[in-house]
Amino acid sequence: MRAFYNAGRPSDAHLPHVTTVRRRIIPRALRRLGLSRSVAPSGVFAFILPSVHARRDFSFRATYDKFFRAEQRDELLREREPEFYDTAFFQDRARVLTTCPQLTHFSLAGYDSRPGAIVDICLVGDTVVHQTCNTNACYASAELGVGWDNGIHAGDLVINCSDATGVAMGQLACRHWRPAGLDAMVCSASAAGGPVKAKAGYPSVVVASSLTAYGSDATGAGEAPYPSLSAYTRRNVRGMGADGIPTVTACVSIYGDGCRSREGRNTSVESWCMFWNGRSVEDRISRHAARLLAVTPPGVDKDEILRLTKADMAEGATCGCMVADPDGNAVRVLLDVCFFNGDYVQVSKSSHLRGHNGVAPCSLCGYPKPGGAGIQYGVGGSADDAALARTTSRTAAVLEAVRALNE
Hints:
This protein is of the alpha+beta class. It contains 11 helices and 16 strands. Helices cover 22% and strands 26% of the residues.
């Protein structure tokens, strides 16, 4: 076929020999446009670092533009059909994961609220406390315990309240521990004796007479000293670094799953991929959206790829990785590692949890159903004594209070 094609053509138009393609052309193309592979210390398998995928995807216009397509939509479309960039997980992750001591957003009696919001609190006996300002909110610490009394206990949502002039009015506590046996919401006024049951809380309409305390006259609009519920600062994907180099936040998730490598054989391999979460739905549902990290052969620890890529992801999340855009300009990509995905079996193995079944129903503790042991993925490495480091401060406070109660 090659001789037939080259017959009568000039030498510069000849098809190259297969040896030339294999030894010269393909290596040159891989060095210029391909993905550089790293080899595991054991030498058993090769893998591709997430920063390598970022460097390649940012170098081509077709894949580069997909990082910004979801963010460049108009505001009405983003509100009607939100993408990942429009979710609270991306816009305000500290609130979603409740990792900060002082909450920036919270739910009060079914209404979304935040510090600075003006609410009306309905108490028992049809008493209404009008125009109460939510000064700040946090979760009660473990020192308050988990008793049966009607006070504030560990894990309760505690909202410090003040009036329009900024004078403290007390605290509003929403139950977290044993809400069925106690009042779901109580108000502890600074001038009252004990907690009083609160039936509901509603957003308040701030009238002109109450705005004088905020520096406005009776006819002016006035503004509260705290941001309103509609106040919203959007987190953008693009930014500018202190050194003048543009930055791009690229959200990624890691996915791992096992499969049989050959039909009819019980030999399984583990495939690990990464996905760009920030891309639009139409770009993410394509099979071309997956970026392969590695395929671990049988007999190899399936979590080895996580250990090998952790340093690269940590550097990308903190310092960022320098890449070049399609025009050759320098860009710093900040990797935002959002999720680890997998089926229940894979998550249990990688997190060293017990398998969920009727014999051992809890995936964290070693409490079994009487009658014998069942299948447990984590076996000796299960999280019997886990410190639950990846849990919220609210749950940690409750667990600490319960442990202190049992001692």
